[in-house]
Amino acid sequence: MYDAWKILVGLAIFLGLFTFAFWMNAGKAAPVPEVKIDTPEIKKMPEPERKCVEDKHFMRTTHMQLINHWRDQALRDGDREYVNKKGEKYVISLQNTCIKCHSNKKEFCDKCHDYAGVSPYCWDCHIVPPEEPKEEPKGNEL
Ligand code: HEC
Ligand code: HEC
Ligand code: HEC
Question: What is the number of structural domains in the chain?
Fold first, then answer.
């Protein structure tokens, strides 16, 4: 005589384990990983003004073209001022503009690029300023 319930429980556990990997990935179908924007430079901006040079969607999808355009504008036309869609001005510089705000290049640019399998060769020549040391937690807060 078998205990039908034991079989059912066993089967449920088996199916659970078998499909575990699938549901573990279920929430991760997003096209890009979460990237951190909590750098010292960005935190200096008041929260509602924590914006990139263009809107987030545009940056996410089009930053590659944007910086190529920056390079051409800076080097071919000698014009190092970028005016965004809202009319705000930025100095055209990978190091002093993009990486000034996104000083966590490893956790930001690199993380996303590793995920997407791209490795821009820009840093062969362009300098990545060293990241500012992380703030130490204050002893009395532990
Ligand atoms: C003034 C600070 C600042 C500068 C300069 C800046 N960024 Fe940003 N960037 C931000 C902030 C803040 C966000 C998050 C925007 C949001 O959530 O609306 C962001 C978002 C992004 C995103 C989208 C991230 C995501 O979650 O999808 C990309 C890509 C990006 N920036 C690349 C760049 C590049 C490339 C440059 C130089 C051309 C640049 N940024 C210059 C502050 C900056
Ligand atoms: C939200 C994800 C994400 C973030 C954050 C991000 N990138 Fe990218 N980047 C991509 C993807 C995806 C591509 C490849 C796009 C393609 O092949 O069309 C790319 C391509 C590029 C390219 C062109 C590379 C090539 O070989 O064509 C450059 C240059 C670049 N990114 C610079 C940056 C810089 C600088 C930062 C940080 C300030 C940054 N990206 C942050 C996703 C990201
Ligand atoms: C072979 C070396 C080299 C490589 C590789 C390179 N650059 Fe440059 N880039 C330069 C030099 C040199 C300048 C001129 C610097 C100046 O006049 O301030 C420059 C200037 C620029 C500028 C304008 C000013 C500035 O300081 O940011 C941008 C934007 C730029 N490059 C983007 C890129 C991007 C994006 C990549 C990768 C897809 C890249 N570069 C790869 C050498 C290089």
Answer: 1
